[in-house]
Amino acid sequence: MTATMTDAPPPAAPKAAGAPQRSGRSFAQILLLVAGGLLLLSAIRMITGSQDLDSAGQVSASLGLAVPIGLAGLAGLWSERSGVVNIGLEGMMILGTFGAGWIGWQSNPWLGLLAGIAFGVLGGLVHAVATVTFGVDHIVSGVAINLLALGATQYLAKLFFNNGSALDAGGNPKQSPPVDSLPDVTVPGLSDALQSVEQHHWFLVSDIAGILGGLVTHLSVVTVLAAVLFVGSWWLLWRTPFGLRLRSCGENPTAAESLGVNVYTYKYAAVAVSGGLAGLGGAFLALVTSHTYLEGQTGGRGYIGLAAMIFGNWRPGGLAMGAGLFGYSDALQLRNGGTTVHALLLLLVVLLVALGAWKLYRKAMVQGVVSLAMAALVLVWYLVTDTVPSDFVGATPYVVTLLVLSLSAQRLRMPKADGMRYRKGQGK
Predict the structure, then answer these.
(1) What stretches of 189-304 adopt beta strand conformation (E)?
(2) pTM attached to this predicted model
(3) How far is CA 349 from CA 354, 378, 381, 396, 408, in A?
(4) Residues with Cβ < 8 Å from 270, sequence gap 6 or more?
(5) Helices 56-81 and 316-331 meet at what angle, rounded to 10?
(6) What confidence tens digit (pLDDT) does each residue in 265-295 have?
């Protein structure tokens, strides 16, 4: 791995600004948006008759697919809040899948989970050494880690899974032997009651029951851990002195160092945590989703996690919503996807009409007219078809990724020093 190292001074750290204005929506506004979304989704379900739009099975599948994306996004958030861009999340997830599969089949899934985290931390430390200590371009280092992780795990899989007891237990050059399952959680009584209400298909009530039922039925312990990590990350980064110092390294490392913050230490800690979270996302794929390490099982989720982080504006709450959206769109192909995506076309029509009306109200005539024209085209598509081709259903997560990033680009605010090369002593 090489980097272009010059004697030119690093980019100047951004000047300190005044107290930032509080951004985001209030809790009441969020509740109103959620209630409006539920009403709209319930109405679409009643009109189209597509019961899988928000069924417990759909929600459960969406949650299982959202967890690794969310963990990858949370990993990116930790790294970038300290000022280090982490394109190597995909490679760290790959390391996590291998570590979990390798150790998990030889011992137990709990040790496999820890091994997946440890392998991810190792990848994170390599990225930290390259970017923080040696000043390698963050993008170059991340791409190199992705390539190295892929090549290393392919070699190690052939070395460890294609002979001896591993081969006898079902291993081969592209996968590990099966790993025992981790426990899951179902709330007794509540799960059955919600399922009964959902089956009545009542307006709104059954929709809420289906969503809640998917959240309390066969919930993996790693999913519960991921939820705790999201809440814990928010509290640690935004409510503690440690988090303030870490975020200051991503906003203005020169000013942070002048106030006594060891910028290198905080960047190393953040990138190591980032690698551990990405490794945990990979371990989830190996231990919960498939119960074995499989070559290529990350499937680009590290990159989608970065997209979810950007959609969430580098904040845990928005990131969680983005991961849920991508997980939901990915789960559509598992449960009557063509019919369900066809029903979502009607939802897209309503959203495009609302967006067009809002743009016209704000005097953005071109954007408003384009939105309304797109709404008309999607409506024609919905009216003249009964389902959506399976190829389009499979591409839905990637289409959603592009749409979300394009629509949210105008409100994004990344850390000011994100990706900048920093040298110790600039603040003295």
Answers:
(1) 219-220
(2) 0.88
(3) 9, 6, 10, 16, 19
(4) 78, 79, 81, 82, 84, 246, 249
(5) 140
(6) 999 999 999 999 999 999 999 999 889 999 9
